[in-house]
Each structure stands twice: as structure tokens, then as C-alpha cells.
Amino acid sequence: MLPILMRYGLWLLGFWMLAALLMAGLTQSNRDSRSSALAAETAPADESASERPRTYEQLPGVVHMLPEALPIERLQDKPLYEFTELDLAAYLEHLSDREADPIARVMHLARKNIGQPYKLFLLGEFPFETHDPDPLYCLTHSDCVTFCEHTYAMALSRGWESFFLLLQRLRYKDGQIGIRTRNHEMTSEWNQHNAWLFEDICRTLGGGKQWVDMLAFWSPREFFHKMRLPSTRPDVEWPDVYIPRARVPNVLPDLRNGDMVNVIRGDERHQLVAHVGMIGLNAEGNVYLIHSANPQVREEPLLAYLQKDARILGFKFLRLRPLPDRLVREELARTRVGPALMSERAN
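Given the sequence above, the corresponding C-alpha cells read:
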């Protein structure tokens, strides 16, 4: 009886070992299939596998690596919103080496993104926080603020790392990633926290006599309540200035390429920045607005944009300070924070 049980036990053990080997093979095959499907799904439609070699050997079922950057001569004819991350890194380094003027880089990149699809509320703090689980950057789409932030950050960077760090410095107070430190309101937050790089030029335009007072308002408690977050921050009334719509023609000769535009709306009591974009001059010196609005990024005459919207009270204008490349290097050296410390510093 005992020999029979031993033979039966050995047979059963062998059966389970064979089954385990078969299951392992099927699992690996499924992983390979999923990995191949993922590679095919995420590869750009106009690039074959042979044209887009991988930066590292892909590990089936574990890691999906980014494709290598396209050659610069091919990127020059490609819309910016179709770039991969490594395309952008290579192109920013190339552009920085070839074009010393930071304003020219701003204009080049802004116009290279014309046609980028518009999408509202597309960025958040993920993976640093989960309150707003959208990502920290987006190359394929933009809204009005993210279009400007991405364009300035790209133009003042030499590659991916500096672009990403500067983007977060523009989006957050002192670059500390968190929904509570994000620049939610333009006049009292974004413009003030980025005054190290941009200056308000309203008081200097048109001989310094064109601006009028405004009073911006926003409620942090109401905003954070919608995000289901407690807040004891009081309501904000922020005194500021802007150029009223009737006087905008008087300041057009003083505007320059790359100036940031805040579109002012509101009522007699309170005003707010309802939209943003940037100035672009054509070959004849005519003033255009480059901005992201539904359905896509576009360039149109500033006065035509103003005249078709009676709700616009006027514009506020900001300008990059002199030597912005140096200012960026100094600021990133001052505020650079490692990812492990981001959530700690944001509290």
C-alpha cells in the first residue's frame, strides 16, 4: 500500500510542476502580447518601429521606454504638440544653441504650437497629490494659462529637466508642488509670484497715462470647498491696474513680441483676469494675440479680438524682465527641490 501511495504522490507532484510551468509560459506570453499591443498603441501613427528606435531595450510586461528623438531636421517641420518628451528635449537644446535671443525663442515656440487642441482643466498635481489627479505637464493639449506657461518655460530652457522645473516654478509659489500652493488666481497669485521674471508694464505704456485702477476678487475658501478641502484663507481683494478697452489703440506701438496679455472682465465693483495669451508682431509690425481658446491655439489681430467681445473691459500687459535666461538659472538654483521633499514643503 505504501509504495502505491508514494508512486501516486510523485505522479501528483509531477503533474502540478508541469501545470505551473505551463501557466508561467502563458503568463509570459500574455505579458509579451500586452507589451507589444502597448507599443503599437502608443507609437505615433506616422512613425514605424524602424524609424523610432528605442532608447533602451524594452523589458516585456515591465517597462515601456520612450522612443528616441526624431532627427532635428524632421522636428523642424513637425508641430510642437506632436512632439514626444525626448523630441522636445532635443529640440530645446538645438534651439537654445542656435537662437541666443530668448524673445525670438518664445515667438518661435508659440507659433510652432498653433493648431494645438484646446482642453480646459488638464493639469493637476499627480503623482505628488491626488486632490487633482491630472498630470503636471501636457504637450498635446493646452488651455490659455498652460499654453503661456509651457511656452515661456520651453523658451527659457535648454532641455527637458530645466523645462519641467521652470514650468513648476511658474505654476506654483516657489515651485512647491501642491494644490494649495498652485497659482489659481492671476493678479494676486500668478503675477505676484512670478514678478521675479515678469514686470507689469501698464503704467509705462502710452506715455504712462493710459492705465486705470481695478480691484480683483477671489475666494480661496469657496474654491477649496469645491475641491473638498478645508481652508481658513480669507477672501482676497487685490488692487491693480489695466488698460481700458477705449485706450488699447493708444498703447499698441509700445507692445513687443512675447508680452503676456491678461484679458480683463468683470463689473464696476470687481474685475478679474478671464483669459491670457501673448503678443506677437507680424512683419509689418501689426499687433496680434497668440492664445489657446476653443477649439485650438491661434493667432489673431489683438484689436479684432477685442472688438468681437463686448464683455472685455481691457487688457493688462506683462513683459519678461531683462536677461531672463540668467534670472531663470538663478531662480532655479535658489528654489530647486527634490521630489522627495515636494509634499513636505507644500504643507
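Residues 1-13, 18-50, 53-59, 338-347 have pLDDT under 50 and may be disordered. Try to locate this feature in the C-alpha cell string yourself.
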